[in-house]
Protein 1
Amino acid sequence: MGYDIERFVGYVNEGLLCSICRDVLEDPLQAPCEHAFCTACIHGWLIHHSNCPEDRQVIDVSLLRPLYRYMKNDLNRLQLHCRNREHGCEMVCSLESIDRHERECEYSQIPCSNAGCTMQIERRNLDGHLAVCEYRSRECPNGCGYTILSAEDTQHNCVAELRTELELLR
């Protein structure tokens, strides 16, 4: 499936749209008849059909080729908004660099790194979340040396833990 045309700034040439999904070409391939498609779209189409969805000429997966360089260059120069725009990201970049930006975008939703926590947090807020996450681990504040989860704070007993450790050593 292609890139949603609503994300793009300005006019997008009709030749840069997938003939199947009607979005801007993503990972494009071109048939011998020169019609262009998103890789996922044309592979899905060819599972059930053996012809071009535009002009019905017979095509096979082995006949698909990358876009001509000039078309690829036109595609890469298109400007589009980050997919995290609704979360506040105002970045507009070329299609060529959007993947790199979105992997590093401060507004991307990422999972908490603490085991057991299922929260999704914006990358820019991760440090704040980790400081208060109920699944964070830390060393016991009483000095026994054990790593505890803050959720276990109320059940942690240094004396009992140290007795168990002593028994294991004997």
Protein 2
Amino acid sequence: GSVVASYPYDDSPTHKPTGVYSKSADDEVFRYLAKAYASNHPIMRTGTPNCPGEEGETFQDGITNGAQWYDVEGGMQDYNYVWANCFEITLELTCCKYPPTSQLQQEWENNRESLLAFIEKV
């Protein structure tokens, strides 16, 4: 896991594992939506999630193009965009994929304003 808003494309023509910005025709819209979420999240907006084992990982403004982060061939986000015209972003909300129950209230607090801002933009 991580704490970042990722947007299409997740796949790149070269399928290089990382570092290829794979721009969609609607790149500006996706960046706008991703920033709307990230800028309201207390950790995501810093761009430094500090996840164990990935302490050096950073994301400018708390967002990333999927393929630039890591290439995913055949992902649902890209499929839905290409074949159904769905504008989806992927939200990585915590370093831990399955946070303990004791942390769920804090996760809600971290994401509440972001979710409301995102819904307003949509």
